[in-house]
Amino acid sequence: MSLRGKVITLQDVAARAGVSRMTVSKVLRGAGNISAETRRRVKQAADELGYLPNNLAGSLSSRKSRMVAVIIPSISDIVFSEVLSGINATLRPRGLQTFIGESLFEPETETELIRAMLSFRPAGILLNGGTARSADAESLLARRTCPAIQLWDCDRRALDFSAGPSHEEAGRLVAGHFLERGLRRIAYVGAELKKDLCAGRRHLALKSSLAAAGIDLLSVTCEDRPRQAVTGRFLTEELMRMRPDVDAIHFLNDAMALGGLSYLHEIGLAVPDRISVVGFNGTSLANAVRTRLTTVDVPRTEIGEKAAQALLQMITEAPMVDSWQAPLELVQGNTTVAI
Fold first, then answer.
1. Is 68 helix (H, G, I), strand (E, B) or coil?
2. What is the rounded radius of gyration, in angstroms, for the C-alpha atoms of the chain?
3. Torsion 266-271-273-275 (CA) sign
4. Cβ(96)–Cβ(67) below 8 Å
5. Cis status, amide bond into 107, omega within 30 of 0
6. Quick check: 325 and 165 in contact, CB under 8 A?
7. Which of 84, 121, 190, 304 is most buried, judging by how many CB atoms fall within 10 Å of its CB?
8. In this structure, are strands 218-222 and 248-251 parallel, antiparallel, or unpaired?
9. Is the model's pLDDT at 59 over the cut of 60?
10. In terms of Cα–Cα distance, which of 5, 144, 1, 2 is closest to 71?
11. Neighbours of 203 (CB within 10 A)
């Protein structure tokens, strides 16, 4: 598996545009008295070749870079902050520092972050696997000169290494949990599924597993609200107006589930006796709530550690596998069921 491509230089751009290296430098810096036609040719050549300016020229070379680029959807989301914690805990003792970017699940934002970060010639780049990646981003990653690692997703094997859970397996696990309890009026509550592709796959796996058992999943989702407790509460209220007899709800994540739980308690519905609620990611387990949330726990910090360890192996060219699938645990109160 090849990890490195050719570094495109100013001389390459100059040859493609039919001008001198100095002219290319002036055009890309916006300096000098250069004709509009020459500027157009140079910029077109740079785009076609995928030229990335080395913002650390003169101070770092790609071999000496101690910076690792990390792009996550949200710094404020505890899931990704704990993944980042695992990355930093592994890399910093080895003298590597992380440079963090926040994509907000936006493909255009991720593309610009990839472009900017690769221009610094990092020792490696780690990216979330649950974002719809643009063609420009794919092209930039194909021309990278460093290892690239996918975080949080092991369903789609991509880049040089993947570290994360199987979201399809998580959806099937929740479906099995409901079916074992004889529950049939089942609903799903989520948000931003078009942005969060991993959550979308969990939802589809849940839906298809229930369909195989003859159950139609009722899904209440929205794309314009955050994946937080306030949205979980709002959508649960909407769900209960539509289907007051629902006996099970799976939420996109624990934050939304806690919001839904607060509404269910408010209207006097006992959980889990009257209605079963399941979250995802395990971030609620350290919180004290009236009813302890049943959730699919994911080893978030360990995902970061495994990804960082893989990067260290690639930097030293040590033999390695191409993925690590995080184990999932269905935590029910004080009971844990490993799969």
1. strand
2. 24
3. positive
4. yes
5. no
6. yes
7. 304
8. unpaired
9. no
10. 144
11. 21
Query: Residue 5 is encoded by which pair of tokens?
Result: 């491509």
- Lay out the sheet containing 67-72: strands in order across: 97-102, 67-72, 124-128, 148-151, 161-164, 323-325
Domains and CATH numbers, the chain: 10-49 (no CATH), 67-165+300-326 (3.40.50.2300), 167-297 (3.40.50.2300)
Distance CA 118, CA 111 (A): 11
Question: Residue length, the chain?
Answer: 339
- The SS3 of residue 173 is helix
Q: Determine the residue type at 171.
A: G
- pLDDT band at residue 3 using 50, 70 and 90 as cut-offs: very low
Number of other residues whose CB lies within 10 A of the CB of residue 138: 13
The pLDDT of residue 320 is above 80: no
User: Which tokens belong to 254?
Assistant: 């624990």
Q: What distance in Å separates the CA atoms of residue 247 and residue 185, rounded to the nearest whole number?
A: 5
